[in-house]
Amino acid sequence: MIELKEETIDGERYEAALISVSENWKGNEDSQVIVYTEWTSCEFEFEEEKEYLLYPYDDNGMLKVINCGRNAEINNALEDLVELGEGNKPSNTVQLEAEFQKGGSGAITGLLLLLLIPLVSVPILLIRKKR
């Protein structure tokens, strides 16, 4: 099941997604994260029942993903997954659903996450939408 939310933050329109992380490679240890994609030509579009490998970057405390990069559906990211090798299970269990429901976040569930918090894009997450 995918749950996405549209938000306006500082006058900018975003689609927010709550991601359930099953695997990460770097930086993030949380079992869930909220990622944002801007409503631009580089907007990343999530679809139900698909897995993704995402390379989010930190922008003033917001994790963002774009379509103009290596973010991809898992079937199109096999080369990256081979290069990355086996990831780690999240060590910090968090529940962000309430935060999402309050506003300020969106929702989508996912499977894998690789997180690097610097402003550099690094393979960050592979997500599978829950049914």
User: What is the helix/strand order?
Assistant: EEEEEEEHHEE
Number of strands: 9
Q: How many structurally independent domains?
A: 1
Q: Which overall shape is indicated by the principal axes computed on the Cα atoms? A: globular
Strand content: 25-35%
Strand arrangement, major sheet: 1-2-3-6-5
Radius of gyration: 13 Å
Structural class: mainly beta
Q: Quick check: average pLDDT?
A: 77
Span between N and C termini?
4 Å
* Parts with pLDDT < 50 across at least 5 consecutive residues: 105-124
Instruction: Estimate the helix proportion, in percent.
Output: under 10%
User: Biggest β-sheet: count, sense, barrel?
Assistant: 5 strands, mixed
Number of helices, counting only DSSP H or I runs of 4 residues or more: 2
Task: Give short descriptive properties of this protein.
globular, mainly beta, 5-stranded mixed β-sheet, 2 helices, 9 strands, 4-stranded antiparallel β-sheet, single chain, 131 residues
General description of the model:
The protein is mainly β. It has one domain. Helix content is 10%, strand content 31%. The strands form 2 sheets. It has a 5-stranded mixed β-sheet with strand order 1-2-3-6-5, with no helix packed on it. The longest helix is centred in the middle third of the chain and has 7 residues, at 78-84. It is globular. It starts with a strand and ends with a strand. The model is unreliable at 105-124 (pLDDT under 50).
